[in-house]
């Protein structure tokens, strides 16, 4: 099981090395090769795995929290930046043409 977990986590980190390279290439003027980044990420993944699953789980948990924070920040920035184009008009009841219980046809599969 340890070998399978090691191979799986190394594959994930290798792919993320390529994604890091593509991201740096897209957003910065730096064009690094994916191979050194992937090797460093793979070595880090193997070391992390050999130290134990609990440490690996903590690292994944921290990465998920960081990803969540980045997504929330991006959403807030977009909402603030585009606030002049946003309105609540699409959510108005007058724009609803379906959805009330009375307007739906009776379904033989629905329990009432």
Any overview of this molecule?
The chain is mainly alpha-helical and 112 residues long. It has a domain of 54 residues. Helix 1 packs antiparallel against helix 2. The longest helix is centred in the middle third of the chain and has 29 residues. The model has no long low-confidence stretch (mean pLDDT 79).
In short:
This protein is mainly α and 112 residues long.
SSE succession: HHH
What is the 3D shape? Answer: extended
Helix count?
3
What oligomerization state is this entry in?
A: single chain
C-alpha end-to-end distance: 50 Å
Q: Give the amount of beta strand, in percent.
A: under 5%
Mean pLDDT: 79
Helix/strand class: mainly alpha
- Main β sheet profile: none
Topology diagram in text:
Blueprint: H1 2-27, H2 34-51, H3 53-81
Notable characteristics:
single chain; 112 residues; mainly alpha; 65% helix; extended
């Amino acid at each position: 099981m340890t070998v399978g977990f090691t191979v799986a986590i190394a594959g994930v980190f290798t792919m993320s090395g390529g994604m890091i390279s593509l991201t740096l290439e897209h957003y910065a003027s730096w064009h690094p090769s994916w191979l050194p980044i992937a090797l460093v990420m793979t070595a880090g993944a193997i070391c992390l795995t050999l130290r134990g699953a609990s440490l690996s789980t903590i690292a994944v948990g921290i990465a998920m929290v960081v990803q969540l924070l980045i997504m929330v920040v991006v959403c807030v920035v977009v909402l603030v930046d585009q606030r002049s184009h946003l309105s609540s008009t699409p959510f108005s009841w007058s724009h609803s043409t379906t959805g009330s219980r009375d307007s739906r046809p009776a379904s033989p599969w629905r329990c009432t």
